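hey so i finally got around to running both of the ones u sent me last week. sorry it took forever, my laptop kept dying halfway thru and i had to restart like 3 times lol. anyway pasting them below in the order u listed, first the sequence line then the structure token line for each. didnt double check formatting much so if smth looks off just lmk and ill redo it

first one:
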Amino acid sequence: MKRADVIGDIVFRPTLRESDLTLERKVILEEIGMVEDTPDDLVFELHNEALWGAHPYGYSILGTRSSVNALGIPDLRALHARAYHPGQLVVGAAGNVEHERLVDVLSETGWLDVPARDGTPLVSPTPRIEPPSIRHLTREGAQTHIVAGTRAVAHGDPRRFPLSLLSMLLGGGMSSRLFQRVREELGLAYSVYTYQSFHADSGMHGVYVATAPESAGDALDAIRDELRSVVEHGLPAEEVAMGRQQLKGQVTLSLESVSSRMYRAASVELYGEPYRTLDQLLALIDDISVDDVAAIAKEFFNPEQLTVVSLGPKGAE
């Protein structure tokens, strides 16, 4: 009860003092500096900017030095008034919790009494992927870091599951195609993996690799060749079957964490999707066919569609 009361005060009635902003501004500027000093983080931010252009998906989550320095208390209060009220919030809970008791606690501590506020809805413009491009930022270092990615489906799109399966088989671990080809067979990199991110209205996926500067071009060529092979030939049935089992294992293991269950419950509400039990999720994965994977490969994994950003002494052109 007391914790809900304290958290409610923090969420709905923050003091927002100038002295606190001054202190936190220094912390965020230090975080920006840490990203700038970490090339395997920075290259993803550069790629987001190249892929999404002026859309907010392309912005750094930390902001820029100029935007952080320009923020004032009126800006924070305006955002708080728009965003921090029950009409904009989702409360997620997992573990030893009873729904009705949770609602009672929130009611008793004033969470449900906060009035809704009018204001501009917190929505962003429709995302638009920029045309494929190759960009390089020269920087001293022992490696060249490369991100090659493009658009994907939205979070609610049922094709999210075959896309995740294909991405996992391509670069989801030591047995994946890219790991075996780029690292084990060619010795071009220590780290190579795929990634994906699903938003409410769009998504993205791609490949990251860190390699010696003189090997950057060869590493990118090997990645493109592997993607091209999947686009042209798809995957054999036995590999897709193995991928289904691996993906089901990952989903099952992820739900052993109480915090993961909490975030999943909240995201279902945020994305406006139906809640699915574990058995229902596993059934969706079981339904992924060889043809589903082949169709996803042809639509989203063509290497000619990739936006490529490299950071290091030598580019990947």
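and the second one:
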Amino acid sequence: MDLPCAQRIRASPDVVAVRLINGKVTLIHRRLWPALVRVADRFASDRLAAIEEVHTGSGAHQTIAVPFPDWVPAEDSTAADLLTVDEALAQLPACLR
């Protein structure tokens, strides 16, 4: 059975789900991870935790959170160090500036 589009996107290793905007699930593509890391101090750390929703054996949903920056690959942290704050903000959508 095919997964719905949103589930396929969330299953990608190049997408992280966080609760960045008003506690709602926000999907961030990997090309933006360095910019997000560079300006992470502008957000509450719990908003930057990677979340994964899984189904338990009973059919209930369980949310697993990986704290920020534990989910950030080393190469993206390194790339973040090379950005200025202005460069990082320019890469992010207006709702995150």
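quick thing i noticed on the 2nd:
The CA atoms of residues 21 and 47 lie 8 Å apart.
anyway thats it, ttyl
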